[in-house]
Design goal:
The complex is a heterodimer of chains A (about 425) and B (about 325).
Chain A: H1 2-20, E1 29-35, H2 43-57, E2 61-67, H3 71-83, E3 90-94, H4 98-103, E4 107-108, H5 110-113, H6 117-124, H7 128-131, E5 135-136, E6 139-140, E7 143-155, H8 156-161, H9 173-183, E8 185-186, E9 192-198, H10 205-213, H11 233-247, H12 262-267, E10 271-277, H13 281-287, E11 292-295, E12 305-315, H14 320-333, H15 336-346, H16 353-356, H17 359-367, H18 371-377, E13 381-382, H19 390-405, H20 411-426
Parallel strand pairs in A: 1-2, 1-3, 9-10, 12-13
Antiparallel strand pairs in A: 3-12, 4-12, 5-6, 7-10, 7-11, 7-12, 8-9
Helix pairs in contact in A: 19-20
Chain B: H1 9-28, H2 30-57, H3 75-81, H4 84-116, H5 122-134, H6 137-148, H7 154-161, H8 176-202, H9 205-214, H10 218-229, H11 231-247, H12 250-255, H13 267-276, H14 281-309
Classes of the chains: A alpha/beta (about 425), B mainly alpha (about 325).
Chain lengths: ~425, ~325
């Protein structure tokens, strides 16, 4: 009896597969595509539509798009699958996972697969700031897809109440302190009811820190991912500024500020200015009950912000046909019109100039001029912190940044400790 | 069992006979093995083999790309002794155990005593106490995250109404572990209450009547009669609570990620970090061995020492 059931189920499944895909060629190339969801919005639907459109144009390729959770869960799934011999063909993973993936021998260089002159032109079409995290050792390993950067959101109503020009955000570090002091308010008990500024310090502490070091004209690592420069004087100065915002100027809450609730703090009008990813733009636009502005991060020596977000990677241990088909899909997904659409739907920064030149994007920019801020900032963009043994180095920095922010270490001691730890972790790469 | 050790020559024949008998007996007794098999297969595949493999892997280096794994002996353990984050996580975990277990057990007993009495809405009350156990920890942690949020979180609204100063509960290394303990206690106490409730209902009402006749106060009755009779349950709960205190890290993942500066990192969370963020599976294996050893010691203490001193009815 059971055999009969199993047999008929198998028959049904086969029949179903044929019935559902009558247009496909006899032997389609099958791809598995892992993608994460890291911001609000109908990401899954957008991806499914993109995949369906691609399959319509390329009946010889079939893509299984798998939602793999958060970025962290996605890399865990992708690498575990790779280690067990069944990797996805392509995946969207953090741009900072580059060295981890190379070290595991899990990905293949894209320019090895796409080496015709027009492919080269395609790769050169991406913003340099985004490619910094995608190329190393003269090879291109990742293609920018859902990329972001840090921007400052400000509440225009609260600016007006504080007697500030609601249409002008602070442009420098010094101005930020003056503005934030005016925007910080206390109630009768002496408790602060509204903070001038919130820079979150959980989860992506190092990234926010780069929002301070970049304008201070210092970088945290080399391009090869083998050295870090955490305790350079300019970096210490940046951390001192961050710590002083709460310890000295009292315009930011003391201790560590939660990354996840920062947009909510802004929406609840408990913080007049917040720093967060551009990926939150669509969310804040949908939920803010007040007019708000988006600005570049304040400048010190010059403006600047790190990039962030996810890249396409093509996995090793897959067949050449699959890899070629994967590149075809990546090219399809980053075509100007499609990149523009994706950017509008999610709030991510379109990674190519030609995407910004499409009519749809121009129309969107008229409606939401704030979206252009991220693009402008890209001129000053630097790579997000990424090294070999990335997460371990990042943790060493995160822990020490948090120690400084919660007052258990001085900025200098904290960064010295972070650098020492990072030197220890990276020692084998410097031999 | 077959005879072992030195056997005098004349006895050898006898041994052979008994061996044959023994082997015949095993053929007869295949049924119990078959009955045991489903459970054994699961246990070996998912408990024993992983445990042994973990110990084995902890003596090797982590394979990375082209570099295969090599035998490194005790290197991973030496690294561990030298790793401040490991010690931090371990001591955090001990404090976490020390802080959560007695309180959740005391609360569980109190709640069980209360809902064991005949009172109005008893069913609802029991349900209410048990609810935290049923809710998934991830969802619950997200709600607690809101409780602790500075400025407009529930806790802040309460302290503000009382005119107390504002506090960044999860952002301060001095308070964050305490906050995590409260969540764990809230989650666990209701679960333990169920065991106490069941145990209380096993206690014969004759004892209460006798105590009443003797003129014992409520406290005397609890301390001299109920509490000793609850000892087997307490023991069971104690072991469970101890194991849970090393096992329950979902709320850490959601609420603090071990921060600030590892102030709320627990051993299992650190293992996860090392294994799946750093991809250092050998070091994670070495850390797991430490966790395994601790849990083994706990189990040993329970079965060998505490069991003998406990009064079973």
């Amino acid at each position: 009896m059971r055999r009969v059931i199993l047999k008929s189920m198998a028959a049904l499944a086969v029949a179903g597969a044929f019935a559902a895909a009558p247009t496909f060629a006899a032997n389609p190339v099958e791809l598995t595509f892992y993608y994460p969801v890291a911001v609000g919005g109908p990401i899954t639907k957008t991806i499914d539509t993109m995949v369906a459109d691609f399959e319509k144009l390329n009946p010889d390729v079939r893509i299984k798009a798998v939602y793999a959770g958060t970025y962290q869960e996605s890399i865990v799934k992708a690498l575990t699958a790779f280690k067990s011999g069944t990797p996805p063909t392509l995946a969207v993973l953090l741009s900072t996972d580059l060295f981890t993936l190379i070290d595991e021998n899990a990905i293949v260089p894209i320019d090895g697969l796409a080496n015709k002159p027009e492919d080269k032109k395609w790769i050169e079409g991406f913003y340099k700031g985004f490619m910094e995290n995608s190329q190393t050792g003269g090879k291109t390993w990742g293609i920018p897809f859902q990329r972001s950067t840090i921007v400052m959101f400000w509440n225009k109503n609260l600016f007006k109440e504080a007697g500030l020009n609601p249409d002008k955000a602070p442009a420098t570090w010094a101005e930020t302190i003056t503005y934030a002091k005016k925007l910080t308010r206390s109630d009768a008990n002496g408790n602060v009811s509204q903070w001038g500024l919130k820079i979150p310090s959980t989860g992506f502490t190092y990234w926010m820190f780069q929002g301070l070091t970049t304008p201070n004209d210092t970088v945290l690592m080399n391009a090869a991912g083998t050295k870090t420069y955490f305790d350079k004087p300019a970096a210490v100065e940046s951390l001192q500024y961050w710590v002083d915002l709460s310890a000295k100027h009292k315009v930011m809450p003391s201790g560590v500020i939660e990354w996840g609730t920062t947009p909510k703090d802004f929406l609840e009008q408990k913080a007049a200015m917040v720093w967060t990813t551009t990926g939150n733009l669509t969310n804040i636009r949908a939920n803010a009950s007040f007019p708000f502005g988006v600005a570049m991060l304040p400048a010190n020596k010059h403006p600047g912000s790190p990039t962030g977000g996810g890249n396409f990677y093509v996995f090793n241990k897959t067949s050449p046909e699959q890899q070629q088909a994967a590149v075809k899909f990546i090219r399809f997904a980053t075509e100007p019109a499609r990149a523009a659409q994706w950017s509008i739907a999610t709030g991510y920064v379109a990674p190519r100039q030609d995407a910004w030149d499409t009519p749809e994007m121009k129309k969107y920019l008229q409606e939401v001029p704030a979206a252009a801020v991220a693009r402008e900032q890209m001129k000053y963009g630097v790579a997000e912190l990424s090294t070999h043994d990335n997460q371990r180095v990042t943790k060493a920095l995160n822990d020490n940044l948090q120690a400084a922010l919660s007052g258990t270490k001085t900025p200098e001691a904290a960064l010295k400790d972070a650098q020492r730890e990072s030197d220890r972790i990276l020692r084998s790469w410097n031999r | 069992m077959p005879v072992q050790g030195h056997i005098p020559a004349p006895a050898l024949h006898l041994v052979r006979v008994s061996k044959r008998l023994y082997m015949n007996r095993t053929q007869f007794s295949i049924t119990p093995w078959l009955l045991l098999m489903p459970a054994m297969v699961l246990l070996i595949a998912f408990t024993h083999y992983p445990a042994v493999a973990t110990i084995w892997h902890s003596f090797f280096s982590t394979p990375k790309g082209a570099t295969p794994s090599v035998f490194v002996g005790m290197e991973n353990y030496a690294l561990m002794a030298d790793d401040p984050v490991f010690w931090r996580a371990l001591f955090n975990n001990l404090w976490f155990a020390l802080g959560t277990i007695p309180v959740s057990i005391a609360l569980a007993i109190m709640m069980a005593l209360w809902v064991n009495d005949k009172l109005l809405g008893r069913g609802l009350l029991r349900l209410a106490y048990f609810t935290p156990t049923v809710l998934p920890m991830i969802a619950v942690a997200n709600i607690w995250l809101f409780f602790y949020t500075p400025q407009y979180g529930l806790l802040e609204q309460l302290t503000n109404a009382l005119g107390l100063p504002s506090h960044n509960w999860l952002g301060n290394p001095d308070t964050v572990l305490g906050c995590m303990m409260v969540v764990a206690i809230w989650k666990e106490a209701g679960f333990f209450m169920i065991f106490y409730l069941a145990a209380l209902q096993q206690i014969s009402p004759v004892l209460a009547e006798a105590a009443g006749l003797e003129g014992a106060s409520r406290w005397q009755y609890f301390w001299k009669v109920q509490f000793p009779l609850l000892m087997p349950t307490t023991l069971f709960v104690l072991i469970n609570a101890l194991i849970n205190s090393f096992r329950l890290v979902d709320h850490i993942v959601v609420m603090t990620k071990g921060g600030p500066d590892n102030a709320s990192s627990l051993l299992l969370y650190y293992i996860y970090e090392v294994g799946f963020s750093f991809w250092d599976s050998s070091y994670a294996a070495a850390l797991t061995v430490v966790l395994l050893m601790m849990l083994a010691v706990i189990a040993f203490v329970k079965f060998r020492i505490l069991d003998r001193r406990t009064h079973y009815q």
